[in-house]
Design a protein that fits this description.
Length: 119
Amino acid sequence: QVQLVESGGGLVQAGGSLRLSCAASGSTFSINAIGWYRQAPGKQRELVAAISSGGSTNYADSVKGRFTISRDNAKNTVYLQMNSLKPEDTAVYYCNADTLLGLAHLTYWGQGTQVTVSS
């Protein structure tokens, strides 16, 4: 099992920055990739950014050039640096871990952290 705890959300004005953290614990050796997702009211959850165990990254088109995902393996923590925030970035942000242990492919979610960008 993997446990994920997000932190770093809050209220920020448009153009501002926030850094989200996702701390993983448990069977972290089984993690293939960690992704940040977000869900705005009335909308489907969407992938924002992801980073693989090998360090490869991918981003949603809407955040390219503004958001950066990174990891600190020593701390088992993944970060999402969000710059030039826009009101449309307002959402609950969730951390997701994709794991493979033997033949078992499982995903885990954190509890989410609210990001609110005011205009």
